[in-house]
Specification:
Number of strands: 0
Helix content: over 70%
Structural class: mainly alpha
Largest sheet: none
Radius of gyration: 19 Å
Order of helices and strands: HHHHHHHHHHHHH
Length: 276
């Protein structure tokens, strides 16, 4: 329990009281429960989406509000990792120089481009999923809340890949804030994280809300994890392993991949019902 509380404190800006002393090892061991953080974030975003949908007519504005709230909840921690990773990897320098660039707090051109593209894609995809299931055909077939279900489960599923990266590659630096996450995470931790994420997403998205297709959910998760594993091995080849920045980057990139998957899932589901 202590590790999970520390994980919330470290990975979010939620007002979590921590009465005990900081324990980096305990925090590292809690990484397998990272999807639980995603569950809380997903529930908050789902509530924001449902409330916003009553007052905001524009799909794009509603999507922008949801994305903004997510940034506030995480403090932009993972976005910082995305920008730093792109600055370092696309500098095409030596491994050591890449690591130095990633440690630099200044935002470079590649990082800026990555952030801009990230926001554009995320807003367009959420809005696109909402529009796919919110038109006349969507109202006829009960797909109005497709985007809400996706907003709920995406933060949960994406965090599997952060855990996977911790287990799949060594830590690239001699020391760092994410070192304990990597050293304390193994294959069993990945299975625990995947089980938590899939069970919650299946119950919430496929069961309670009854919107997500179970087969699509499993396929999207599998594809995302395969890409996540490739990313870990790519980082190992490029800089000798993963860092806190790359762990944040894979989380954000995984969210984009998952949203793409659900967009095509929503389009396919709507198309099949219309053809019927």
């Amino acid at each position: 329990m202590k590790g999970l509380i520390l994980l919330f404190k470290f990975m979010t800006r939620l007002p979590i009281p921590v009465n005990s002393e900081f324990d980096s090892k305990e925090l590292g061991k809690s990484m397998k429960f990272f999807p639980v953080v995603g569950i809380v974030i997903g529930i908050i975003l789902y509530a924001v989406y449902l409330i916003g949908a009553k007052f905001i007519l524009s799909s794009y504005l509603l999507a922008a509000v949801v994305v903004l709230v997510e940034v506030i909840l995480t403090g932009g921690l993972h976005l910082d990792g995305l920008a730093d990773t792109f600055d370092g990897i696309f500098s095409y320098r030596s491994k050591q120089k890449m690591l130095e660039i990633m440690k630099d707090s200044r935002l470079g051109t590649n990082g800026g481009i990555a952030i801009v593209l990230y926001f554009i894609l995320k807003i367009l995809l959420i809005a696109g999923i909402r529009d796919t299931g919110f038109g006349i055909a969507g109202e006829m077939f009960g797909l109005q809340n497709a985007a809400g279900a996706v907003v709920l489960v995406t933060p949960v599923l994406a965090r599997i890949n952060t855990v996977l990266n911790c287990a799949a590659a060594p830590y690239a630096r001699s020391s760092g804030s994410a070192k304990d996450f990597v050293e304390c995470t193994d294959k069993a931790g990945v299975l625990t994280a995947a089980a938590i994420a899939l069970v919650f997403s299946g119950i919430a998205g496929c069961g309670i809300l009854g919107i997500l297709n179970p087969l699509h959910l499993v396929n999207i998760t599998a594809v995302t994890m395969v890409l996540g594993l490739y990313f870990a091995k790519l980082m190992e080849r490029k800089i000798g392993g993963v860092t806190g920045d790359t762990l944040g980057a894979i989380l954000e990139l995984s969210e984009i991949v998952i949203l793409f998957g659900f967009y095509f899932s929503a389009a396919a589901s709507l198309g099949s019902k219309l053809s019927f």
